[in-house]
């Protein structure tokens, strides 16, 4: 019967055979198409399910001092991450995993429960490679699923707290957050590479395929800072704060010839390698961020305006008796009163506000403003340091006597320590204004002559007498060298109200040396000394002396004052009370 039906309907048999042949041909063609003609499609689909790209960490560039001493280096660390989806099926391993990485069992369990649907979660970052390797060995031994490790880099700061506010630091993702690390972040940051790997369906790496892109390390930065001078300045500033019970302080040192910042220290400071208990106030680079009224350290700049005007000579005298001057409802007073008229050098030695005011009345407030402006006050230094402030140098349409007088002896304006150091370095450089630099300079730039050379040299000699005169700022003297400078003692303005805070002072000393061929300009600022005195000539001048002495010797600057002093004369100098030039 079957045979008869097959013979009776041969077209059905041929149809079925034909359809099977067509289907077989279509399948064969599709196989050939996918494997030969369009093979990239299958490869792409396979890769999409198994090939992954893993970043290759790139370390940041090195930060060094001017002599190549490291200030910031990148060290390899191990970071552990987990796949909560994989770990969700091994709750019995959670407590063991928490113990391995030193975390709270309850906290880890809570994190895993809250992120149960995620495939990536950091477990521990920045572990020492040996520690991370030990943990991963235990993970494999205990068969804990979903735990993986990657290599990263962490910043380490060999100088620690000594250069903390200058160098700054990076965050956990190795991005600059403060100081030079932030200012030069794009230059220092490396470019991560890429590595292709094969993973199974659980996300485990089963094969390294290839390096798709090599990591490019960041560029290095050589700062102008000399770490030897930085250590010296930091030690002396810290000791001074302890001795005088001060709240804070800063010291800035500038190379007169090149404009390089050789040292910049602040107290109190912090350890950038351990920021767990960091006080945010200690992160401030006070030398660039804190603004203040500079007091009597401005008198040499005002005197420069007087000499440049041609109306005054160093030998001209001013009657300062009886030691005070009434201007409307304001009274200008001298700390060290003089019965006799004072020449211009004497005004600086005695730090006479009355004498300086009378000179300012003669030349006018506009002349003093222009001179201070030429010295860079009230302007950006161009360093590009994060958070740096420019201060305020007021300019009035009409200068009344009170505004003229106060500006001439350093009140009514606000500046930073670095601006003050820049002004004195210009004075020391014979009136040539050279841009400041926080990076090493291989060739000194061309300066702008903002003050006539003869005026600058005259003031250098006058400021040398301020330090070397019997009643001057003798505590700033440096054995073996002639140095020049001026102290300042400024009352601190009240916060939120007009006027000044009682018994709150800022003690300053600004100077340079050696006078015969100035090489270093330095500014010392000590905030709110509470014991042992508060005058700049008493508090800040000795710091200037000790740091300048060490710095000149470390830099092999030849002495220019080798005349011997008798032991008795030296003893008398050390015993003299702090009268006369106090600022």
Automatic annotation (TrEMBL):
Protein name: Peptidoglycan D,D-transpeptidase FtsI
Membership in a protein family: Belongs to the transpeptidase family. FtsI subfamily.
GO molecular function (one): penicillin binding
Chief subcellular location: membrane
Compartment(s) where it occurs, according to its Swiss-Prot or TrEMBL record: Membrane
A single Gene Ontology CC term: plasma membrane
Keyword Metal-binding: no
Keyword entries, A-Z: Carboxypeptidase, Cell cycle, Cell division, Cell inner membrane, Cell membrane, Cell shape, Cell wall biogenesis/degradation, Hydrolase, Membrane, Peptidoglycan synthesis, Protease, Septation, Transmembrane, Transmembrane helix
Function description: Catalyzes cross-linking of the peptidoglycan cell wall at the division septum.
One BP term from GO: regulation of cell shape
Stretches of the chain forming a coiled coil according to its record: none
Organism: Pseudomonas duriflava
Active site (catalytic residues): 296 (acyl-ester intermediate)
PANTHER family named among the record's database cross-references: PEPTIDOGLYCAN D,D-TRANSPEPTIDASE, PEPTIDOGLYCAN D,D-TRANSPEPTIDASE FTSI
InterPro entries, sorted: Beta-lactam/transpept, Beta-lactam/transpept-like, FtsI_transpept, PBP_dimer, PBP_dimer_sf, PCN-bd_Tpept
Gene3D superfamilies per record: 1.10.150.770, 3.30.450.330, DD-peptidase/beta-lactamase superfamily, Penicillin-binding protein 2a (Domain 2)
Penicillin-binding protein transpeptidase domain residues: 249-548
UniProt-listed Enzyme Commission number(s): 3.4.16.4
Catalytic activity: Preferential cleavage: (Ac)2-L-Lys-D-Ala-|-D-Ala. Also transpeptidation of peptidyl-alanyl moieties that are N-acyl substituents of D-alanine
Pathway terms, separated by semicolons: Cell wall biogenesis; peptidoglycan biosynthesis
């Amino acid at each position: 019967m079957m045979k008869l039906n097959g013979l009776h309907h041969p077209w059905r048999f041929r149809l079925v055979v034909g359809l099977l042949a067509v289907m077989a041909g279509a399948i064969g063609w599709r196989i050939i198409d996918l494997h030969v003609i369009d093979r990239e499609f299958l490869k792409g689909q396979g890769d999409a399910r198994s090939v992954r790209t893993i970043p290759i960490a790139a370390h940041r560039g090195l930060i060094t001092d001017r002599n190549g001493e490291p200030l910031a280096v990148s060290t390899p660390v191990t970071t552990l991450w987990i796949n909560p989806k994989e770990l969700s099926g091994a709750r019995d391993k959670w407590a063991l995993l928490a113990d391995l990485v030193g975390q709270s069992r309850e906290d880890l369990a809570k994190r895993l429960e809250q992120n149960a649907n995620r495939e990536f979660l950091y477990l521990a970052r920045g572990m020492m490679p040996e520690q991370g390797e030990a943990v991963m060995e235990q993970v494999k031994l205990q068969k804990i699923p979903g735990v993986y490790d990657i290599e990263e880099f962490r910043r380490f700061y060999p100088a620690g707290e000594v250069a903390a506010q200058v160098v700054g630091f990076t965050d956990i993702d190795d991005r600059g957050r403060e100081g030079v690390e932030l200012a030069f972040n794009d230059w220092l940051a490396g470019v991560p590479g890429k590595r292709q790997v094969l993973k199974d369906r659980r996300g485990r790496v089963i094969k390294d395929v290839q390096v798709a892109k090599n990591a490019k390390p960041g560029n290095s930065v050589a700062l102008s800072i000399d770490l030897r001078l930085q250590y010296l300045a930091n030690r002396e500033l810290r000791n001074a704060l302890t001795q005088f019970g001060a709240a804070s302080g800063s010291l800035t040192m500038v190379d007169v010839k090149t404009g390089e910042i050789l040292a910049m220290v602040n107290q109190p400071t912090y350890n950038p390698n351990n920021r767990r208990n960091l006080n945010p106030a200690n992160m401030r680079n006070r030398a660039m961020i804190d603004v203040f009224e500079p007091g009597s350290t401005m008198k040499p700049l005002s005197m420069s305006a007087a000499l440049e005007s041609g109306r005054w000579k160093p030998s001209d005298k001013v009657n300062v008796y009886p030691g005070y001057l009434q201007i409307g409802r304001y009274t200008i007073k001298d700390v060290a009163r003089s019965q006799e008229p004072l020449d211009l050098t004497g005004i600086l030695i005695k730090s006479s506000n009355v004498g300086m005011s009378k000179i300012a009345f003669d030349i006018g407030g506009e002349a003093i403003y222009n001179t201070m402006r030429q010295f860079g006050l009230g302007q950006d230094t161009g360093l590009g340091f994060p958070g740096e402030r420019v201060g305020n140098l007021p300019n009035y349409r009409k200068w009344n006597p009170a505004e003229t007088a106060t500006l001439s002896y350093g009140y009514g304006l606000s500046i930073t320590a670095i601006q003050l150091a820049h002004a004195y370095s210009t004075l020391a450089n014979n009136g040539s204004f050279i841009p400041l630099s926080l990076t090493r300079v291989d060739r000194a730039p061309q300066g702008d002559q903002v003050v006539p050379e003869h005026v600058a040299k005259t003031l250098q000699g006058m400021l040398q007498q301020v330090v070397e005169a019997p009643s001057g700022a003798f505590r700033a003297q440096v054995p073996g060298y002639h140095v020049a400078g001026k102290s300042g003692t400024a009352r601190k303005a009240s916060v939120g109200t007009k006027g000044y805070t009682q018994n709150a002072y800022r003690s300053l000393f600004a100077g340079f040396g050696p006078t015969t061929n100035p090489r270093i300009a330095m500014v010392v600022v000590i905030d709110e000394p509470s014991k042992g005195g508060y005058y700049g000539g008493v508090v800040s001048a000795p710091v200037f002396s000790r740091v300048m002495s060490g710095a000149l010797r470390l830099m092999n600057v030849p002495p220019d004052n080798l005349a011997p002093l008798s032991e008795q004369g030296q003893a008398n100098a050390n015993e003299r009370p702090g009268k006369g030039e106090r600022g």
